[in-house]
Amino acid sequence: MQRNWGLKALGVLALAVASIAPSIAQDGPVRIGYAISRTGPFAPGAQMTQEPAFILWAEQVNAAGGLNVKGKKRKIELIGIDDRSEVETMVRTVEKLMTTDKVDLILPPWGTGMNFAVMPLLAKHGYPVLAPTATGRKLIEMKNPYFFPLLQQPDRIMRALADMLAAQGVKTVAAIYVDELFGLENIGALEDALKAKGIKLVEKKSHPLDVKDLSPVINDIKSKNPDAFIGLTYPPDTFLVTGQSKQLGFNPKIFYTAVGSAFPIYRDKMGAATVEGVMGIGSWNAKVSAESKTYFDAYVKRFQKEPDRWGSPHAWAGMQILQHAIEKVGLDRKAIRDYIANTEHNTMIGKIRFQNGENVTTPGMVLQWQKGEFEVVWPKDRATAKPVYPKAAWK
Q: Which residue, 191, 221, 228, 285, has fewest beta-carbon neighbours within 10 Å?
């Protein structure tokens, strides 16, 4: 009888645990996992544009009581792991987060190539992702229903650039590009955009991700005396080509670099006087709206540094969209995906609407460093300042 009683008690306990477990899951933290570059060549970009936005968002939501999930406030638990800027490490980490750790949601890795690599996992396991640092037509052409790139696509960015060049009277351009998906897609889009405007591309050169010296390329381009220089670069080569161009006295009327141009550390490390007049990819600054200034101030207070003017605001917009989706439909990932795909979203960078996975409302833009701020100079209806042309001599 004692033995039977013990078996019955175990049965009752098992039923009790089974009935309590769903309640615990529903009241516990919302677990959000991600792989991000904290070390390696992608770390400067990732730690400027993405992870701080993730952390600030989670802290602000938790301070307000948590996410509203089906009428209950639930705290956010971020599970971030260093992918060491390695594609294989990132993929293995994300797969473990999905299959073993069974996190509720996944946030994106940094950069176009990394996002391209993770897309099959998103589709296989049904995790919607809003990517703030991935741009490329190949990403859109994969038609992954769970993937939403927030950045403008290369053709939009390069058309805006070509429009601005034509408006300034530019006739000739020389370009370099990083030999990675980002650079390859953007150089193709640039060639098409320049051709449409009747602007001649007098030189184009590729370089590897780990390039250490661009002086031979710069000297070759300098000899061709183009009106404009376009660097379709990642942060390390953005810094490199700027410093070496200054050293070699290469100072075209327009000097434009890509990823990293929007980083405050670019201004601070190179010197505000040096980067004065340099143009680049971006889409935002704190002057855009009162909400933008609030985000800027909160970011500076929390991290003791300024946010960049491109990926960071897009990362924040992505977190805003994700939060709205959760508050509307709960944590069902398919329902979140459908909400993202079929809703026009109000965000800090303006309205965002996706069509076939593409952000079709945020235009391509050109920004320029002027008196310490990366001003939006193109298109005119988004501008916070007028373009300065030609660029002044290096200082």
A: 191
DSSP 381: G
Between vectors from CA 359 to CA 355 and to CA 365, what angle results, nearest 5°? Answer: 145
pTM of the model: 0.87
Q: What is the DSSP string of 203-250?
A: EEEEE-TT----HHHHHHHHHH--SEEEEE--HHHHHHHHHHHHHHT-
Q: What is the 3-state secondary structure (H, E, C) of 165-202?
A: HHHCCCCEEEEEEECCHHHHHHHHHHHHHHHHHCCEEE
Distance CA 242, CA 249 (A): 11
- Cis preceding-peptide flag for 109 (omega within 30 of 0): no
Residues 6+ apart with CB under 8 A from 80: 33, 34, 35, 36, 51, 54
Q: What are phi and psi of 51, to 5 degrees?
A: -60, -40
Give residue for tokens 């988004």.
Answer: 382
Per-residue pLDDT of the chain (395 residues; tens, 9 = 90+): 333 333 333 333 333 333 334 434 567 999 999 999 999 989 988 999 999 999 999 999 999 999 999 999 999 999 999 999 999 999 999 999 999 999 999 999 999 899 999 999 999 999 999 999 998 888 999 999 999 999 999 999 999 999 999 999 999 999 999 998 899 999 999 999 999 999 999 999 999 999 999 999 999 999 999 999 999 999 899 999 999 999 999 999 999 999 999 999 999 999 999 999 999 999 999 999 999 999 999 999 999 999 999 999 999 999 999 999 999 999 999 999 999 999 999 999 999 999 999 999 999 999 999 999 999 999 999 999 999 999 999 99
Q: How many CA atoms does the CB half-sphere of 132 hold within 13 Å?
A: 30
Partner residues linked to 370 by β-bridges: 373
How far apart CA 208 and CA 366 sit, in angstroms, is 25
* φ, ψ for residue 285, nearest 5 deg: -155, 175
For residue 210, count other CB atoms closer than 10 A to its CB. 8
Q: Which domains does the chain have, with CATH numbers?
A: 28-149+288-359 (3.40.50.2300), 154-283+365-382 (3.40.50.2300)
Q: How many CB atoms lie within 10 A of CB 89?
A: 16
